[in-house]
């Protein structure tokens, strides 16, 4: 999310705990944590638009979550910016933006795979926070106790009308209207 271009992996760690901070400093001393000049330039280039990207991604995510709520066959839509989401109250007290990640369930594995295969703008990927919308069927990795039709989507900066159209046509492939 910080750089938004899916070309750099970096982050930061913050803690108030002195024991945790000491472990982090030791790990950093042993493994290194200094960016190279190219990576620093990529991060610097991207930070100038971070606010604009976050604002657009969160706005798009909220709109897609609202669209998903109205879709037959879509269950358990989760987005902390939805007033009916269990996380809304605490998220609203802590956040200005609710993030770009929306999750939902389709009836089964086959439906989820058909949905992902039908998307034209939404790319199937596990990388989140970029300017392009990505989604994945999380259960394909195993190990988690989640439904086979569970989709996790990181919403990007595309035009919202285009994203809604792509979402609707992909959902149509899962359960066509007679």
Can you describe what's shown?
The protein is α+β, with helices and mostly antiparallel strands and 178 residues long. It folds into two domains: 1-48, no CATH class; 50-174, Aspartate Aminotransferase, domain 1 (Alpha-Beta Complex), CATH 3.90.1150. Helix content is 43%, strand content 11%. It is built from six helices and five strands; from the N terminus they run H-H-H-E-H-E-H-E-E-E-H. It has helices at residues 18-31, 37-47, 50-69, 88-94, 109-118, 160-174, and strands at 75-78, 101-105, 123-124, 134-137, 150-154. The protein has a five-stranded mixed β-sheet, with helices on one face. The N and C termini lie far apart (40 Å). The mean pLDDT is 90.
Total count of strands: 5
**Superfamily at the CATH H level of the largest domain?**
Aspartate Aminotransferase, domain 1
The number of helical segments is: 6
CATH topology of the largest domain: Aspartate Aminotransferase, domain 1
Please report which band the strand proportion falls in: under 5%, 5-15%, 15-25%, 25-35%, 35-45% or over 45%: 5-15%
CATH architecture group name of the largest domain? Alpha-Beta Complex
- Provide mean pLDDT, rounded: 90
Question: What is the CA-CA span between the terminal residues?
Answer: 40 Å
The unreliable regions are none
Number of domains: 2
Q: What is the helical fraction, as a range of percent?
A: 40-55%
Instruction: Compute the CA-based radius of gyration.
Output: 18 Å
Strand order of the largest sheet: 1-2-5-4-3
Please provide the ordered H/E string of secondary-structure elements.
Answer: HHHEHEHEEEH
**Approximate shape:** globular
What structural class is derived from the secondary structure elements? Answer: alpha+beta
